[in-house]
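Sanity check

After download, print the first record. It should look like this:
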Amino acid sequence: MDKLIAYILQFGNLNRQQVNLITSKAREKRLHKQDYFSEAEKIPRQVGFILSGVIRVFSYNEKGEDITRFFITENNFVVDLDHFSSGFPATGYVQAITDCDLIVFSQADWNELSTTIADWDPIISKIVSKTLLHKLERISPLVAEDATTRYLAFLKKYPQLANRVPLSYVASYLGITQSSLSRIRKKIS
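Expected structure tokens:
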């Protein structure tokens, strides 16, 4: 719980009573490798905070190929926010690609935190803004840079992921084939 509270406190102040309320609503959850946190065509019903492990967000294209959109690592929230908030079924998947330990909140508990803690919504808004900025930083290079430059940027941004996730997911994330990624890795090593 300490990691979760420390993360939240980066974005705002909470008193002891508010911290106690948050921890009383939190539940620990273990996802095994390949387990889904949320799935397409189902309404997301929980928010998680990753204590350990790596999760990927992906969807399928019209050819049936899975396309990795994002990796989420330790000390970050994980939720399909648009669908969680709207109550509509998700269009993508959120899946553990390593064993993961999380702290999770049900939708009802998350909503209770929002209505009970006066500064909760501004804190969450700052966290969401940070996440959106990271998404934008990811999209810009995919449009403008060649595959080698994108891979080098990936290694710089996620140095710990290169050896933790399958190359097929990295290639998908970079928008290239796995064989192209293998050639790039061989060329730069």
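If your output differs, re-run the checksum step. Summary of this record's structure: The first strand starts at residue 27 and ends at 31.
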